[in-house]
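**User:**
My hope is that you can spare some time for a protein that puzzles me. This is the protein in question:
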Amino acid sequence: MAVIRADSLVPAITTKLQLHKPQRFTSPTMPFPFVLPTTSSFSFSSSFSCDSHPSLCHSASAQRGVVRDALRRHKRLPPSSRAASLSNVITSIDGYLPYLFAVDAGFGSETLVGGESINVVLNKAPSIQWRPTLSGDIVPGRERRRITISSLEYEIFFVLSTLAFAYVSVARSILQPLHVTTGDFVGAKERTTAIQTANKHLLDAAAIYEYLADRSEQIATAPPCIDVAPTTARALASLAMAEATLLAVTKDDPYPAAVAQSRNKNDKEWMFKSADMPKPKAHLNARLCLAASDHATKAVSLLKQQGGSGVNKASSGLTRYVDDLRSTCRAKACRFFGIHAEMDGQVAEGIGWLRAGLHALDVDVKDRESSIGLGFSKLRKGLAEKREDRRVEKETAWGSDAGRLEETRVLEMLEAKWNKINDTMNTQVIPPLNSLLAKMPSGREIFTPQPYKPSTLSRDTLEAMRCLPEGEEDGAGGHEASSDDEPGGPSVIGSYPEFEAGQTPSGSAYY
């Protein structure tokens, strides 16, 4: 009996239309929505002194104040406006890091640019406050409590991790237009450029996490919270590698676009153009997805092995996202193996791989086939899709399921299509799940992140700091009060923000 391929049943209405109509895509891959931490003011001169470069501590405090102001302003912006302030946050941190590393190098025998040596003396232990964003579960309407660090190593950890969070957030803002389903889709060239740029930011974040993990292993004291733990840095490095690898696969994956275009009321290209992929590319993408799944599995293991509580436990949102990413990567690998089998004419084996992907996503095929389960699952999935679409449009916490819902749509679309072909024409026996999983190969890496190199001060800058500092050092970085410095006393209900508890009205007030 002749074997009929699934793609041959989808006719191309007009060849000319296919050539001249731009190809459009969407992307189901989205990085984790990190929240940037905030910090209190701190004066380096209150804890350190430098005889070789008297202005170093003053300059470091000034640069840190700029970072504090940038983080404070970013936090106060609405979610839809925060993407525009990320460049200001990254610039301020890049300006602060050379001074921070210079103070840190002054404790040892390290030499900086131009052979300049710095001698920094610790007068008393510093007391710096940071508000963590990964520790424990947050109570709705309340913020996590601040933690106090007394080591310069943890200051470096917080600053660098904030920089990595900003890189990941920039990647999210670049990918956000690719997820919108209510407007026109982004063209192929613009989409490729966006994915490549987002990948660069994810790899830069992974390099920072690896640097922090290697550096923090030399600290003898226990970390004050999970945000600055070595295992957390390793987990976030693996997470960034998994996201970057999966994003590279998405660039050559037309099937999520076919599903998204069918859901877009403004796009009709899905009616005449079928998804297609070269056969060798399908098998390669499957192995890349397995490598991404391995990275995500490592991240889940590192986050769960800490097993603490409160500030010593990772938030459930982060752990759930990484676990969903692991499942999505494995399901996507099964789908590509199924596409490869279908291209060989083995439609039944392709259906088996699709069911293996649904099993990886904890989707029960038997429940979907029953009428009651099908109706309830459709209703629940429809509500989830509408909520996710609204999140993407409002640029809030979209993508919290790591593309799990999007991959389920693709698997169900292909399974329905191939089942119809297998039931009416090919009538092949669908192989069992275990026999397919036994043939699954190992993953294949595609990226090797470059090691992070700490920035240093130039020789001219170091020479200029040999003079005495001008003016007084406040370390606040501005005169506006931040949420971290606002008094925590009770406020009077119904009063203006400027009204303080215990304040009595004046007798000369005009009513």
Observations:
- Residues 1-28, 476-483, 485-511 have pLDDT under 50 and may be disordered.
